Amino acid sequence: MKYLDIESWNRKELFRHFRTLEDPTFGLVADVDVSIIYQLAKEKNQSFFVRYLHACMKAINTVENLKYRLEDDMVVVYERINASATIARPDNTFGFSYIGYSESFEEFQLNFQKEKERILNSNDLFPPKYSLGCIHCSAIPWVSFSGHKEPFSGNKNDSVPQLAFGKIKEQNKKMLMPVAINVNHALVDGYHVGQFFGKFQQELDKID
């Protein structure tokens, strides 16, 4: 973890402008093609959710601006971004997880399983360990949405990207999944969101 030199940042004026807004966040929804990774998870008897979440985290960790977080008036740069995903319980409530990221799918899957077991065996909402060096994400597999809005605390310093994954729809023989992303515009622009979706699709198309 290190601090960004805001004065020498080429986005300095953009940063200052969006910091003046009451709500500096923006979000969008885009479809990703999950045909290949869905089949891969099925063939290997793996969780489709864990598979695409890992691909998502690999993409997140390649985009510099998605590693930036606001802490007071400073911009902190995290070396690694982890996943704080909602995990459902049998009674249809959920708990917030904190899943350590690893480039290795096997290690990431193990970290996920540990958090899932913790949540299923407790009534806790929040994980015992947490850092701003994460993303917040939820699966909403019941709805193939085209729009999405995240809750906003009213704190302009909220800068953890929020993602949601929707229900798959079939179109032109492809399996498409809507993905919503919400970010703080003081740190992230549409260009960086585009970088994320491009890299995410590359990871989803890999066969390993």
TrEMBL record:
InterPro entries for the chain: CAT-like_dom_sf, Cmp_AcTrfase
The entry's keywords: Transferase
Gene3D superfamilies per record: Chloramphenicol acetyltransferase-like domain
Keyword Lipoprotein: no
Membrane-spanning intervals of the chain: none
SUPFAM superfamilies per UniProt: CoA-dependent acyltransferases (SSF52777)
Keyword check for Nucleus: no
Residues forming the catalytic site: H185
GO molecular function: chloramphenicol O-acetyltransferase activity
Protein name: Chloramphenicol acetyltransferase
Species the sequence originates in: Tenacibaculum singaporense
